[in-house]
Write a structure and sequence with these properties.
flat; 5% strand; 5 strands; 18 helices; disordered N terminus; mainly alpha; single chain; 5-stranded mixed beta sheet
Length: 407
Amino acid sequence: MAKKKTGLSSTLFRGIDPYAQDEEQPAGDVERLPVTAIRPDPGQPRRLLPAFLAEGVATGRLSPVEAMRRWLESGELPAALEALQQLAGSIERHGLINPISVRRPREGEALPDGVRYLIVTGERRYWAHVLLAVSGRRVGQGETGHDPEMIRAAVVDGGISVRAHQLIENIMREDINAVEKARGLWALRYEISGLSGEWVNDSSPSQEDDEVNDSSPVPRELVPWNRVSEELGISKRYRIFLTQVLTLSPEAQAIVQEHGLAETTIRPIVQKLRDEPELQLAALQQLVAWQMDNEAFDGQRRSITRGVEELVERLLQQKERPATTPDVQQAAAALDAEAQTRRFRRRIRGAIRFLHGLPRPERALLARDLALDTNYADVVDDMHALRDQIDELLQRVDEYRAEEHSA
């Protein structure tokens, strides 16, 4: 019987989930460290903050608190911010159940002034502490709690195995997008090779298989790709599919990241529109519209993928007939012109059903909380902004109706 291959992830780090709240205690003495002395690892394939803020934190132009304030004001990546708010609420009530783990910088690894550690595991818990500090809240512990500007952390050795563990655990997560996974593959390849590859987060090489590409700028000290595939337990075919995602234009990659698109879903776009950046954007924008219009998207992945294949074929056909289709993006949007209106109708009706379902006593309690609890001041501001938007939209509706009656 052939001996089963055992990868780095299953030998050294079996059963460890660096983002879970119920993970094992990290090795090393646990102590309280200032949040200001810690930064996320810039080589981490998964980014929590919007890219422009993450870069500012990594270079020292922004402190974590400044970055969090700007994120809250920008409204970018609302789903990620909402999940972080929930985690911060849990830590505020129950404390930090499991400490994060950090490492000291390696030789030659430059950090901003005052920063002494990089995060190995627990970046979400770190940013939840920053969010609590920005909000003037405390970490639950005992009757009074403690200042969120200090976080429980274990200092661990920063060897290659720890870094590889960090990358492997994140690459194999189902909830990270295709661009993050592709960058993670490159970062893991550099890590296993014992080289510094933090730059892969911004400009990963696009060669799908540099083992046979003599013109590749990739350093020849890197281990072959099959070593990476073995460590992750994935096939060469799937690894190529993932790394090809980085051949998309930067604008297309940004859409994939913002909306958490999976590699299998965007595969037709990556493979058939490789040299068509405008068509990439058109196809991805339509895909995002479909995804937002379909509340049960996860259960319809296969049919969505078939739809993307058909969309790509139509876009290519339309490109071959420029006289009849002068605007590619308009042609793509026309494939489902009413999707946004239908989505708006469904969400308006959902909000109305929710409000109708609230008994009067509960409405009174809701109004009291919104009025008196400062934690919900932003909700009141959002409600006023929504009312203004609705008023403007209704005014436009009335104008269109008046024009229609006068015609």
